[in-house]
Amino acid sequence: MYDEDQAAKPYISAIHLNLSKDDNATFKPQRFGGTVGINHLTEYLKAYENVGVNHMAINLRKSETPVSEAIAKIKEIVLPEFDTI
């Protein structure tokens, strides 16, 4: 049972993300994560935020988009949609 007297605590989750080369690909689940295009990644991560996840570890090891390109796209398109501390 959750103790309402405690301060809010961070909750973290992790995914194996295959950032699709198709920017408009909708999410397709795979073991421990899935494949999605950059244009649908924000809505996928917002769904996690809406249920209380406030930290997400993203593993890009098996991404079809090269890691450096995936990080640049996430930085430019996805991160601005989230509050930072």
Automatic annotation (TrEMBL):
InterPro entries attached to this UniProt entry: Luciferase-like_sf
* Protein name, entry field: Uncharacterized protein
Q: Which domain of life is it from?
A: Bacteria
Q: What is the lineage of its organism?
A: Bacteria, Pseudomonadati, Bacteroidota, Flavobacteriia, Flavobacteriales
Give GO MF terms, alphabetically.
oxidoreductase activity, acting on paired donors, with incorporation or reduction of molecular oxygen
